[in-house]
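Reproducibility note. Readers wishing to regenerate the assembly model reported in the main text can use the exact inputs given here. Chain order matters: entities are listed in the order in which they were concatenated for prediction.
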Amino acid sequence: MPEDIKAHITGVVFQIPTKPGDRVAAGDAVIVLESMKMEIPVEAPRAGAVREIKVQEGQTVQEGDVVAVLE
Amino acid sequence: MRTVAVYSEADREAFHVREADEAVAIGGAPARESYLNSDRILEAARQARADAIHPGYGFLSENWRFAKAVQDAGIVFIGPKPDAIRRMGDKIEARRLMAAARVPILPGSLTPVANAAEARRAADEVGFPIILKAAVGGGGIGMARVGQEAELQSAFTTAARRAQGAFGSGELYVERYLERPRHVEVQVFGDDSGEVVHLHERECSIQRRHQKLVEESPAPNLPAASKAALTSAAVAGARAIGYTNAGTMEFLVDESGRFYFLEMNTRLQVEHPITEEATGLDLVVAQLRVGSGEPLPWRQSEIVQSRAAVECRVYAEDPTKGFLPSPGTVSKLALPSGRGIRIESGIEAGSTVSVHYDPLLLKLVTHAATRAQAVQRMADALDACVIEGVRTTVPFLRRVITSDEFRQGRVHTQMVEQGAFNA
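Running the prediction on these inputs yields the following structure tokens for the assembly.
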């Protein structure tokens, strides 16, 4: 069952440490947002493979936006 | 005096832009395109025919290259000499300079540690726990507490990577880690003749992520002998480097009352209003005068802490979620006013709180004849604060100010992270 990973805060995509196909554990940073001079990881809610990254570095995302999809 | 503000695209509608006599746009919302762009700021200064630049307390305020570029452009930099900024910005050199001036420093390395093995050798000398710090750091970035040897390798790698990313240098050094220290700092001020005075101390132990939330002056429960030793060490340290203009010597004070130099902030501090309210002196006016080559406006004997003052920093952060940023639009704003209340605010109703900059919204400062009165005034002022549209630290600050620990002045720098003020 694919699962959307949503940004829990508004921010700018700072880093994307994963790519489609990568396996992640629960709690791993799938993307890293920067907001108000802080780096905030958006973590995988469970273990799985990254199916899709929906954002690019430098892009602004709103709280609740889907940033990636887990397989 | 006429003022010229600079602003980024994100701040076109900002309060400070309208408050200034003139305002110049300097670039895009990301700070590196505007507020961190020296060339743009110098261009704006030339265009406005500015005589001087006050760098404030963020962005380029502790960047010696910027200070030098300002000077080289024939404009007065309101702050210390570029060389003093450079020397104190290198945290290892600052430790060496302070040790030479007989200012107590934390046991640790006086040269960078190149790898985890070197860090281990330094740690063996001072004993665990230690703290790894970035040599050209600040704001708690690239800092890591290491409780025992087994954690050292991974802590070193992470800290070096973060320091490299944030400051362009992964250089680290080792210091002994103090348990439950207080953060007490001393405001110093020097002029071109070599004279240096202090404007007493500030207690700033209530912090999260190594950044301050609540400050007060005088520091409670600081024995007179400790205070005298701290202030004279601060003045000696500033004299040793020929420091001019406003600066702050930061110290950690351990449970036995011993103190150690932490770092120097070579600029005006965010929390300078409490010193102004406690002493009745205007630091910014003095900065402008001394920056223009005038002597210090006060003698040491004239600088007296005659009142107690407290500052609370109101951030757009959610204290219930580990102080996560909370950008957005301020939909409603009502702030307290009256006797003994001073507010320094960058927002008004309708303001956008952008993701691009620091989450500090405003500073709430209260003062009174006694500490108990100033603290009570702060509790009342926080109750009267209404900020809607973004989550703020106000509810958390209320719990701090009304806690027994704070009321009794029994505070240390790890309290917030240990959950002492959680609901």
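We highlight two features of this model. The domain at 3-70 of chain A is CATH 2.40.50.100 (OB fold (Dihydrolipoamide Acetyltransferase, E2P)). The longest strand of chain A covers residues 29-35.
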